[in-house]
Specification:
CATH topology of the largest domain: Rossmann fold
Cofactor: Zn(2+)
Protein name: Alcohol dehydrogenase GroES-like domain protein
Keywords: Metal-binding, Oxidoreductase, Zinc
GO cellular component, one term: cytoplasm
CATH superfamily of the largest domain: NAD(P)-binding Rossmann-like Domain
Pfam families: ADH_zinc_N
Order of helices and strands: HEHEHEHEHEHEHEHE
Low-confidence stretches: none
Radius of gyration: 16 Å
Structural class: alpha/beta
Length: 207
């Protein structure tokens, strides 16, 4: 594995892998990855290879198109700007007894994503919180308390899980979308990220 591929796995990769593990749902269950950025584009592939039915959820159609083109692509693509009812209709293809997803993993810090994820998580389902909004997390009681949704916090994975991820990644030849930068261009990389123009993971190459 090239260093530029391995490097993002030791932060973004183990963060999203740890979140999927924390969801603690059996194989064959449905998992939604909310936010298909640096973490999420890895997470959709990982969850698929772990035996889950996967929904990719993002506000950018380009992000959804990207993961749809991968070898291990999601089962359902959800454009976050669609009406909630339309999103739920699309999920019916992978839903079980209760309408909605068995678990959602929040790989974004956009405040609106948390309420959408709660709306798309089934009754008695689980939400794994990775995203860290600056002003905190806000969700309606109607989509959490009334549906008896379990909220689980997750930060990163442990050492053993990191090894599991590397093995899974290597065996299934998963893809990491990487943009390489020189050290002297680090400030431009930062500005692109803050402007929302970056996709996948940024990697600074130091000779």
């Amino acid at each position: 594995m090239e260093f530029k591929t391995a490097a993002p796995l030791m932060c973004a990769g183990i963060s999203i892998y740890g979140g999927i593990v924390k969801a603690n749902v059996p194989k064959g269950s449905s998992i939604g990855i909310v936010g298909i950025g640096g973490l999420g584009h890895i997470g959709t592939q990982v969850a698929k290879c772990m035996g889950y039915k996967v929904a990719a959820i993002d506000v950018k159609q380009s992000a959804l198109d990207a993961v749809a083109s991968y070898k291990h692509s999601p089962d359902v693509l959800i454009l976050a700007s669609d009406h909630v009812g339309e999103c739920q209709r699309k999920l019916s293809a992978i839903s079980g007894v209760y309408p909605g997803l068995d678990a959602t993993v929040l790989a974004t810090d956009h405040p609106a994503a948390f309420e959408l994820a709660a709306a798309l998580t089934r009754k008695h389902g689980t939400m794994v919180l990775l995203g860290q909004p600056e002003k905190g997390i806000t969700m309606s009681y109607a989509t959490t308390i009334y549906k008896d949704i379990k909220l689980v916090g997750s930060l990163v994975a442990d050492t053993a899980q990191a090894q599991e991820l590397i093995n899974l990644f290597s065996e299934n030849m998963l893809h990491v979308q990487v943009k390489e930068w020189r050290l002297e261009d680090a400030e431009q990389m930062k500005q692109d990220y803050l402007a929302g123009n970056s996709e996948g993971k940024n990697v600074i190459v130091i000779d």
